Amino acid sequence: MDLGLVVALVATVVNLTLGVFVLAQDIKSKTGKMFALTILVGCAWIISAAISESPSFGFDINNASNSIAFATGYLVMVCAMSFTYIFPVIKKPKASTLAVVVSASIISVGLSLTSLVAGTADKVANGVIEFTVGSLVWLYVILFMIPVVILAHNLFTRMRSGLPTRQRQQAKMVLVAFVGTSLIGIVLNLIIPTVTGSWWSTQFGPVAIIFMSVVLVYAMVRHRLFDIKRAAIRTFSYVLSLVTLSIIYYLIAYLVSNIILRMSPDDTSSVISPLNVALALLLAFLFQPVKRLFDRVTNLLFYRDVYNIEEFFARLTKRLSIITDLKVLLQYSSSEIKSTLKASFGAFYIYQIEKPSVYIATDKRKKLPKEDVAMLDAHVLNNRKEIIITDQLLDQDDKDLKKMLDSHRIALVLPITKDSIISGYLFLGEHLSSQYTTTDTRALLTIADELTIAIQNALSVQEVRELNESLQQRVDNATKELRASNAQLQKLDKAKDDFISMASHQLRTPLTSVKGYISMVREGDVGKITKEQDQLLGEAFTSSERMVHLINDFLNVSRLQTGKFLIEKRPVNLAKIIEQELDSLQTNAKSRHLSFVYTPPKDFPVLNLDEDKMRQVIMNFSDNAIYYSKEGTKIRVKLTLDKKDATFTVTDAGIGVPRAEQSQLFNKFYRASNARKQRPDGTGVGLYLAKKVINEHGGTVVFSSTEDKGSTFGFKLPLDKLGVASDTNDLKDQDNKR
Fold it and tell me: Is the overall model pTM greater than 0.70, yes or no?
């Protein structure tokens, strides 16, 4: 195969690859489609020009290919010109310009397909086909310059417009690529052959396309043209490798055939075949080392800012998982993202409920005004964009937003959202070296969810901390108030205890006198009384006796409060005490049509008890049974003995105690709801005092009850702790004396 065809094929493959990369980046993009079309027509020009210059195909094919080369060469410039109307921004061509270009294209393409421009293949001289010059080549050159001039004008005006710096730089590089390609093509394919009369320069025609590829690849790498940096760099590396190997091949072949062997073109056929084989093996051996060399060079030149997304994500999320302070979290995240993405600054704007928003930046820039953030909110809610890049806000509706972001020098915005609710924003300034890439946006989208969760967690922790501080302050204030109230209540309680103690002592003396006088009247000391009078005096005596018991209860409660409640134990016959207390209540029980059922146990042991206080307990349990029993029922009283305990119980068939209130029944001043209705004049201290007395004796209270069916009250006294008396005769003598 001819060297020209090899170079043409290499250039075609490289350019087609470049076009595919650009088109694949966004297949719906008008810019990508037009660029790909330009590349495709350019490849058609390369192939047709290479075929037209190869003696292997015959003059007929050479002539046809030469005409196609002229036609496609012109169409390349028309496509390139069309590209400048949609890049870097869309601009509609004027109708007059469109008419001139269409007319010039029809004339140029039409003339190119004739010998008036393309000429005809004449002869082969030194391995190169010589063509005659068409008589209207000059017209072709003039018409050719029309799209070139329009192309240059469009790109030059873009370079001087108010577009962002990156787009102006891109326009400059595209201008150099297209205009340079057209000039190189005209010089090699028209001017040199016309001036010298020799067509040897046309075999270097692909150099024009190679020049365009190199410039465009550089623009892609350096200025983010089409944002395909990685693919462009690798393509550039391959192009350099292939061009280098092609030059090596050409130089070796030239040195061997023309300098070392000094062979004429007619004598080279005998050595070309073995030489091609040897060179092919050499190039195959050199390809990988050459490619690795250019890979290292391109990495050194173009990948200084490259970072690993996975490592960035792992590094950031590790710290996000352990930082709970919101400001520390935002400071670290903005600094890490700014450093990794090579931004001029990083900043967070975070909303807080019913509190001012938080603004943290890596430099000392001012917080965005509320109206500017509100404009950004509206744009995000209306467009649902995951990332906003300021340079890409080209629509007329986004003009105000772009102006606002530019005024704050914000190049990129990452909305922080949760369930379609905006929580805040991450702002990044201009890129320090070039522009943000799809890799950068992909990295930000990768960390967006983790960042949102971390910020929400930090906000929650902050709310909890503030709530705890507020609650602690309230607790401290409430504690002070409670302490003051408690001190006041303690004073009132002491005054109450003092009053009860004093009142109880003062009431006991007149009540004792009342009881004594009533007893004297009933016994006939002041004259005989009637049966009715005796009954009334009995009721008065019982009431006064109840009053004495109540006063004793209040005195004991007061003593409990003041620490003067003492248990004075001595040998006591518990069975006899119970019998005596029940006898004292017989009159009251009979008046309510009730009766006690009690059988005193025989030979009951003597116990060391506080007799007066135990009498109060027995009286309280028995008296309650009388008042809360139903008429006509029996109250069963038992005193039993086992190896460990002496057990006393009073069981009635009365109103019982509601289940929900039983746990509070032995509290001071507490009375069950049905008891308050049955007996409004109760005090609620009897059961409380009874439990205290039993506990002081080392015993336990016995209690069970079912509402509307009756209750059982009593106690158990441990025999081993109450010192069972060994000789009961002395106790019996004491009882008899009483």
Answer: no
C-alpha torsion 545→546→550→551, nearest 10: -20
**pLDDT confidence of residue 723:** 66
Cα–Cα distance between 96 and 98 in angstroms, integer? 5
What is d(CA 60, CA 199) in angstroms, rounded to the nearest whole number?
17
Report the DSSP pairing between strands 121-125 and 128-131.
antiparallel
Q: In this structure, how many other beta carbons lie within 10 angstroms of the beta carbon of residue 658?
A: 16
The answer to whether the beta carbons of residues 80 and 151 sit under 8 Å apart is yes
Q: Are 553 and 712 in contact (CB under 8 A)?
A: no
pLDDT in tens, 73-116: 889 889 888 888 887 777 888 899 999 999 999 999 899 888 88
CB 320 within 8 A of CB 348: no
Question: What is the rounded CA–CA span in Å between residue 417 and residue 414?
Answer: 9
For 155, counting Cβ atoms within 10 Å of its Cβ (0-12 exposed, 13-18 middle, 19+ buried), the class is buried
Backbone angles phi, psi at 198, to 5 degrees: -125, 145
Token representation of residue 612: 């007066």
Q: Are 582 and 596 in contact (CB under 8 A)?
A: yes
Rounded-to-integer distance, Cα 9 and Cα 643, Å: 117
Which pairing describes strands 128-131 and 346-352: parallel, antiparallel, or unpaired? unpaired
DSSP 528: -
Q: Report the alpha-carbon distance of residue 48 to residue 50 in Å, rounded.
A: 5
**Computed from CA positions of residues 448, 453, 458, 460, in that sequence, does the dihedral angle turn out positive or negative?**
positive
Q: What angle do CA 228, 233, 239 make, to 5 degrees?
A: 125
CB burial string 34-70: b at 16+ within 10 A, e below: bbbbbbbbbbbbbbbbbbbbbeebebeebbbbbbbbb
- Nearby residues of 192 by Cβ (< 8 Å), 6 or more positions away: 198, 201
Ordered strands of the 421-429 beta sheet: 355-361, 346-352, 421-429, 410-418, 388-389
Are the beta carbons of 711 and 697 closer than 8 angstroms?
no
Residue labelled with tokens 């007066």: 612
The residue behind tokens 């004491």 is 734
Sign of CA dihedral 289, 291, 296, 301: positive
Residues of the chain below pLDDT 50? 1, 268-272, 725-738
Q: Is 143 exposed, middle or buried (0-12, 13-18, 19+ CB in 10 A)?
A: buried
| Run of H or E including 715 | strand 710-718
227 conformational bin, left if phi > 0, alpha if psi -120 to 50, beta if neither: left
- Which residue in this structure is represented by tokens 């003339």? 111
| Those residues with Cβ within 8 angstroms of residue 354's Cβ, 6 or more apart along the chain or in another chain | none
Query: Residue 86 carries which DSSP code?
Result: T
d(CA 115, CA 133): 8
The one-letter amino acid at 514: V
Q: How many other CB atoms are found less than 10 A from the CB of residue 489? A: 12
Q: What is the pLDDT of residues 448-470, one digit of tens each?
A: 888 888 888 888 888 888 788 88
Give the closest residue to 576 by CA, choosing from 608, 596, 602, 544: 602
Q: DSSP 3-state assignment of 656?
A: coil
Which is nearest to 222 in space by CA: 165, 161, 287, 159?
A: 165
Q: Is the dihedral of CA 692, 694, 699, 704 positive or negative?
A: negative
Overall size of the chain counted in residues? 738
